[in-house]
Design brief:
Strand content: 15-25%
CATH class: Alpha Beta
Low-confidence stretches: 235-245
Mean pLDDT: 89
Order of helices and strands: HHHHHHEHEEEHEHEE
Strand order of the largest sheet: 3-2-1-4-5-7-6
Oligomer: single chain
Shape: globular
Length: 245
């Protein structure tokens, strides 16, 4: 299923159905007809978020059905990301199958170094010129400013300690950070294992506060697209010069 299709479905489920129905036992019953008991496990997963073990977290994500073909990004978001990439090195944190990196490689062949990061990389496609690293977003194994552009799409909504995750993205980015999250409302029963919900662009701006002056935060077809330019590193202080005797 394409992202554009699921966004239209989400519009009906999140913005048209009233909350009294979305949180009801009747909606739960209908959702179970479509997804079975996994919809119940997702609700329990969110309710127990602060107490989950790493094993429980990883197990649910391994068993979670893949809804989209290749990437969770819409065509509009992919085009915007490829256009806004700067520099010669790019890191996609939460790369999944590597589909976004493949599209960036095709659109921006001048980018010399592409790296994909996910806590599970066994399913990532072999792409010429792309290296994969298994790691968690909260503790990325790279030095400060390791990449010109750092991308993170459809990940922040899954991370309990999202402020720490955003700090890590900023830490390893030398020139630009690009983040995409779904614009969605929270309900008891959802079809995704999300912890964090951002119904408006200003909701996400609170999550990334403080943002530098050079940033954009826009709604692209029910997805929030955020990009910021990292401040230039402060110039080293000039050594004090002694006075002539």
């Amino acid at each position: 299923m394409r992202r554009e299709t699921t966004n239209r479905i989400r519009f009906v489920l999140e913005d048209i159905l009233p909350p009294i129905l979305r949180d009801s036992a009747a909606f739960h019953w209908v959702a179970r007809r479509a997804w079975g008991e996994h919809i119940t496990r997702l609700a329990e997963f969110r309710a127990r978020a602060p107490f989950l073990t790493e094993a429980e977290y990883e197990t649910l994500y391994r068993e979670h059905p893949r809804v989209h073909d290749g990437t969770d990004n819409s065509e509009a978001c992919i085009a915007r990301i490829a256009k806004d990439v700067v520099g010669e090195s790019v890191c996609d944190v939460g790369c999944g199958t590597g589909a976004l990196l493949k599209r960036i490689r095709a659109a921006r062949p001048e980018v010399g170094r592409l790296t994909g990061v996910d806590f599970v990389v066994e399913d990532a496609a072999a792409i010429e010129g792309v290296d994969y690293v298994a790691a968690r977003i909260e503790d990325l194994p790279f030095e400060d400013g390791a990449f010109d552009t750092v991308i993170c799409t459809h990940v922040i909504e899954h991370v309990l300690d999202y402020r720490r995750a955003i700090a890590e993205l900023r830490r390893i980015a030398r020139r630009r950070v690009i983040i995409v999250v779904p614009r969605e409302r929270e309900y008891r029963y959802s079809f995704n294992p999300h912890f964090n919900f951002f119904p408006y662009t200003h909701s996400f701006l609170r999550a990334v506060h403080p943002s530098p002056a050079a940033h954009v935060c826009e709604d692209i077809g029910r997805d929030i697209y955020y990009a910021e330019d990292r401040p230039a590193p402060a110039a080293a202080a000039e050594p004090a010069r002694g006075r002539a005797a």
